[in-house]
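Let's do one together. I've listed all components of the complex below, 523 residues spread over two lines.
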Amino acid sequence: MSTSLASTPASPAPSRFGYATGLSCRECGQTYPLGSTHACAECFGPLEVRYDYPKLDRAAIEAGPASIWRYASLLPVPPDVATTPNTEPGWTRLVHAQQLGRELGLRSLWVKDERANPTHSFKDRVVAVALAAAVELGFKVLACPSTGNLANAVAAAAARAGIRSVVLIPSDLEPQKIIATGVYGGTMVPVEGSYDDVNRLASELADDREDWAFVNVNVRPYYAEGSKTIGFEIAEQLGWRLPEQIVVPVASGAQLVKIDKAFRELVSLGLVEDTPYKVFGAQATGCSPVAEAFRQGHDVVQPVRPATIAKSLAIGNPADGPYVLDVVRRTGGVVADVDDDAVVSAMRLLAATEGIFGETAGGVTLGVLRSLLASGQLDPDAETVIINSGDGLKTLDAVAGGLNTSPAIRPTLDAFLAFEASQGGPGGDQPL
Amino acid sequence: MTVSVRIPTILRTFTGGAAEVATDSGTLREVIAGLDASYPGIRGRIVDDAGQLRRFVNVYVGEEDVRFAQGLDTPVPAGSHVSVIPAVAGG
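Okay, and this is what the predicted structure of the assembly comes out as:
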């Protein structure tokens, strides 16, 4: 059944799912009413939200709240979503990274810094949209399989909304992410195995528990739309224009695909000029199935068993991998990977040049930016945006090892002067 | 000598709503053929026209993703559990 009103000349009216009109399969085009299905019954392809957007202007968006809800009209959420209890994510800083840009020889570099979200990663955006849709769909429990950041976001959003949460995590997750989930009081289930094992369990459970909304499984079509807001914000913060190059970390690949979708929607709504842009995907070498498929020229992604410190990107069987390849190839970008040493080095560089302590995924993104600049695949004169998707405080172990921490000194001036001399003296090239 | 197959919600229209069904052991290809004999049409939802597993289906024999084993040639011995799951999940 199609509820599309696309040919209606009058301005469409929003429902409890905003201007969303239905779901359609990305693979075969089969349409479905708005509901809690995520895969096509004909071909298993992913379902995507379809809309019939009204005319929108920049001023109306600019007058909206300083959160993702300024773009509520472009999401499958009720018009009053901003007034219901939620974590109000988004509207994070787009940092003009001049020192880092100089260091890398880039003319104009920006960092979209997702640490400022309520649980310190971009996952608050997707969860907020999933929560709003889940409530409308009648679900009672908010659940997810997670590599950590999503667990934090789901547990927090459910707490704020006053509903139960159940999160499934690989048992070897970073302790910071486990603590930062448990504190919200939901149910947390550590599972033996990799994220892909946890994901499989969640998919089976989602078929078994009718009133559980697994945000990234049975309400994934709505959830994934939340990542569009990263693209909307980047364009608005650049003064309503698109960057020329953007580097995005790839785990499932949904974030990259949705940023591209956001750019195209802004163009089709006439909110930005249709200027060319290239999308680049970043993976860690220890989990680089999409980069490998890109190199091989394949359009399917062969799953791998992950082994990397970038656990938030350690998805060996990425659901949106084929679509990442489509977007990157269509726009003239590249999917590349860097090893864990390069990830740590990039995390330090981002912190030391811009005061941004990003998590390992941010290190992967900056590491790939450096690598693509070195190989000449990225244009140093083109305006470039990179995504720092999370907070380094959640992945402390990655950088703790090599830090130069000195033994304690006595609380005397002499002791300090002796320390300073041992470091090359005052004004030396070893800043304290 | 049978194996049990877990059917995802979107294919339960074929199995009269059953979440788990039994069929004969063999290779995964034979198991899917066995399913199709009992529930005509179900094979075409799992396998494409070229006879390959569809791009967005994950099939597990026990705990093993068959893409890490021998794909449709993966042995499914008697007593095994097979699970068919939409791949579009996670992240």
